Amino acid sequence: MGDDDLPEDKGENVQQLVTETEIELAPVYAELDLIALENQRRVLRAFQRNRVSEYHFRPSTGYGYGDSGRDTLDKVYADVFGAEDALVRTQIVSGTHALSLCLLSLLKPGDRLVALGQPYDTIQTVIGLTGNSPGSLIGSGVSYRGVDFAPDGGVNYEALLQAIDDQTRVLLLQRSRGYHWRKSLGMEAMRDIIDTVRRSHPGVIVLVDNCYGEFVEREEPTHAGADLACGSLIKNPGGGLAPTGGYIVGRADLVELAAERLTAPGLGREVGPVPGGLRLYYQGLFLAPHFVVQALKGAVFAARLLERLGFVTSPRYNEHRTDIVQAVQLGDPEAVIAFCRAIQAGSPVDAHVTPEAAPLPGYDGGVVMAAGTFVQGASLEFTADAPMRPPYTVYLQGGLTKEHAKLGIIEACEALERLKKQSG
Ligand SMILES: *Cc1c(COP(=O)(O)O)cnc(C)c1O
Questions:
Q1: Is 120 a pocket residue for ligand 1 (Cβ < 6 Å)?
Q2: 3-state helix, strand, coil in the chain (%, to 5)
Q3: In this structure, what is the dihedral angle of CA atoms 162, 166, 169, 173, given to the nearest 10 degrees?
């Protein structure tokens, strides 16, 4: 199984390839099921240990003082992530907001931030590398050094250790590739980086952008030694049910700083009402290990089917994964449009809408997005994004059921085949 030397069956009937692909992928799916089982166990135990009860789902109003549902959800998250503390809030509006709270509460004028790899687009704006937001870190007197990954995707330790000096307060690591053609940072590599940096710079705070990564491996960054990790609840840990929100997990003193930044010094985590109640957040977290693996099975299926049709993918279908993103080089703008339109047409919501390339700051040529989701912008649901520039890569992510992702991918592959026939 997993024979890389199979001939490329370009032009063959997609349906026939689907059957062969599914048989070939059985051992990959089986391995993913084991990861889901282990993560499900950890989540379940956290619910039980923290005595989650029906009354924790009740709404709170006003200041939200003494909301035991909210405070218990924090404890459940801390437990799941192997962290001292957690802050899970509907008032954190996105992953960018969660990360921004961490960065802005940790870094003071004169401090330095070091990041490994190019941060996610919206985070570049928070740092002040793009845009000219007056509230950015650089705008408020924080200095920044970026360290590139080595050409082979590995870590350039010499450059990293050189970049970190006495001024450096925070090292930012991003687990997911985001929308870049680079390898994602797996938990083993992350542990290695953290251990190495700690040896020479014990005081540096390691902050991890964990977006897209939760429950893809058996461990999280906080298990691997990170001081803080954060992410969005409309991605993996919300399990497709959380309608909004973000989380921060890690060292208690640092979570407290972020909480004071979110509300006000002195108020911190004590305020924050949840008028709608938190049932969907608990239930979403409970379901997240399963849904993440549904998304991963969809990604693996997409990778193998598209490889068999002759496309270059990253990660390859049988490569180690640490996030839910699947990149595929389609090599042609028309193919990107056709692919994304097929994904959109295969969505449960807004299937009748036709995606077009639209301008997005920081992307010349614009970006095409296919997203027919129940929760706006939710990318644990099956979605595709593609910056319209060579090599015309499409980034797939999510899928609450593997069946839905599979149907969408088959449609998209058939659209590619039709396009190929048309152009001779
Ligand atoms: C999605 C994402 C973010 C930003 O999250 P938003 O919720 O869209 O603000 C940051 N980093 C990575 C790696 C992401 O995938």
A1: yes
A2: 40, 15, 45
A3: 10
The pTM for the full model equals 0.95
Pocket of ligand 1, candidates 93, 97, 122, 367: which has the most ligand atoms within 8 Å of its Cβ, to mutate?
Answer: 122
Q: Please determine whether the domains at 3-39+286-422 and 55-284 fall in the same fold group of CATH.
A: no
Helices (H), 309-401: 333-345
Rounded to the nearest angstrom, the distance between the alpha carbon of 22 and the centre of ligand 1 is: 31
Q: What is the CATH number of domain 55-284?
A: 3.40.640.10
Please give the distance, rounded to the nearest whole angstrom, from the Cα atom of residue 95 to the centre of ligand 1. 5
Domains of the chain, residue spans: 3-39+286-422, 55-284
Residue 154 CA to residue 164 CA, distance in Å, equals 18
Q: Which ligand 1 atom sits closest to the C-alpha of 176?
A: 13
Beta strand 312-314 with 326-329 is antiparallel
Q: Which CATH class is domain 3-39+286-422?
A: alpha beta
**Coil, strand, or helix at residue 58?**
coil
Predicted confidence pLDDT, tens digits, the chain (424 residues)? 444 444 444 445 898 999 999 999 999 999 999 999 999 999 999 999 999 999 999 999 999 999 999 999 999 999 999 999 999 999 999 999 999 999 999 999 999 999 999 999 899 999 999 888 889 999 999 999 999 999 988 999 999 999 999 999 999 999 999 888 888 999 999 999 999 999 999 999 999 999 999 999 999 999 999 999 999 999 999 999 999 999 999 999 999 999 999 999 999 999 999 999 999 999 999 999 999 999 999 999 999 999 999 999 999 999 999 999 999 999 999 999 999 999 999 999 999 999 999 887 667 778 999 999 999 999 999 999 999 999 999 999 999 999 999 999 999 999 999 999 988 6
Task: Report CA dihedral (27, 33, 38, 40) to the nearest 10 degrees.
Answer: 170
Of 174, 175, 209, which is best to mutate to test ligand 1, by the most ligand atoms within 8 angstroms of its C-beta?
Answer: 209
Residue nearest to atom 6 of ligand 1 (CA): 95
* Ligand 1 and 244: CB distance under 6 A: no
Q: Tell me how far the alpha carbon of residue 212 lies from the centroid of ligand 1, in angstroms.
A: 8
